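In this supplementary section we document a worked example of the pipeline. Step one takes a protein sequence of length 356 as its only input; no multiple sequence alignment statistics are reported here. Step two produces a three-dimensional model, which step three serialises into structure tokens for compact storage. The input and output of this example are shown verbatim.
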Amino acid sequence: MPMFLLCLLSFYPPVSSSHVDLILCKLFVIEGKDDFTEVSGVCEGNDGSVFVLDSKNCRIFKYSNEGALITSFGECGQGPGDLFNPGRITTAPDNSVAVSNGNGYISIFSSEGSFKKTYKFPGKISVGFISPNVFYDWNWTEDGKKQQVLLDANNAIIGRFFSVKINDTIVTIPDTTGRRVGFSYGDNSYLPQLLFSTYSGRSVLACSREYKLLIFDSMGKKEQEITRNVQPSFFTRAELDYLEKQIRDHCKAKGWPNKVSKSLISIVPKEKNFFSSVFITDKYVFTCRISENIAKQSAARVLDMFTLDNTFLGAVVIPGTPIYISDERIYITQDDGEDISIAVLSYRQPNKGGKS
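The serialised model returned by step three reads:
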């Protein structure tokens, strides 16, 4: 079995003298072959089973603890039990499976795939299941910002948190009639993002532009705030050149005027986001940093690792972008342009004072 030792990275950004060693073992690979077209979520059941959500096919695949396909269920539609633009998947305390749909519905299935019920949130499009009592979403504020909120089961807001200015990433250009048309493009290295993750009824909320994470229990009560006193990294000239090329290529593919690409390039900030995703488990909180050099397109990613009581353990490197992290495993999506697969790796800290 391949094994990799992950040690503290002391360079991006500078970290304290604390460190963390992780032993990472590749367990197996879930081969998507012709099944996966767009994997948007992964979660584990209480029995160790693995659920993979293919959002484009509206299909949920259930695998054993060792990666053997057990069953699949779900189909596209808007009727009871159907899936409509599904985006998130998680397991509830009773081991049922909660799938978030793009129409403000959350579909609940048994772990075997039988449809159980639907939670409906009128006017919402990105609701996330935390517990039967608490849900995640975002709202528009009166001044045009996108803001994270927690909801109860009756669609009432019970808490408001991070917000971002979406207009900072949009440019408006007049068309031939003089009517102004909006254009937007953003890379996750700088596009402000509202981030959310949940695990076993606990959740973490964050904004990619601020190194602060809020942890909530299953009733929506804040348990902890995790922060780091670090400054954001600046884009290098090579990285800015890379982003400019990405923007020009995108605008050309869309058939947009040259002045659109120039305007979009002009609003790229000097500083990077702190991270692109967050994860929470019963033991740890992780942030996945923006790549040290986005122009290099390296598969390796850096995770900052914390305990739930805001102790920074250190930074570690993993061989890919994580889509899900549990108490003992890291799930990494792999896409070679033809097939999508998911590498499943175990992680643990070496035993103190003995063999690992």
